[in-house]
Amino acid sequence: MSRIWKRFKDTGNRQRHPGQGRKRDITDRYLAAIAKRSRQLSPAREFAAATEIRLFKFTVSDRMHKRVLFVRKPMV
Q: pLDDT tens, 23-69?
C-alpha cells in the first residue's frame, strides 16, 4: 500500500506535514556569507573545508543566483 494512500485513509488528507523530508545541509545565507567573506577559495571549496560535505559547483551557483550574488572565479 502506498504511503500517500495510507495517509489519506488515516487522516483524510494527502498533504505532508511541515518539517517532514530531508533536512538541508546547505543554507543559502551561509553560502552567501562564505562568498562575501573570502575571495581566495571558491564558495564550494570553502564550504567543503568547513563542513566536510562536498558540493556540486552548480548547486552553489544556483543558490547564489537566487540571492542575486554571482559566483566568480577565485583570485589567484
A: 665 677 787 787 777 767 777 788 788 878 787 778 777 777 777 77
Other C-beta atoms closer than 10 Å to the C-beta of 37 total 11
Distance (Å) of CA 6 to CA 3, 16, 20, 22, 43: 5, 12, 16, 21, 43
Question: CA nearest 39: which of 14, 70, 7?
Answer: 70
Three-state secondary-structure class, residue 34: helix
- 5 pLDDT exceeds 70? yes
| Residue 48 backbone phi and psi in degrees, to 5 | -65, -40
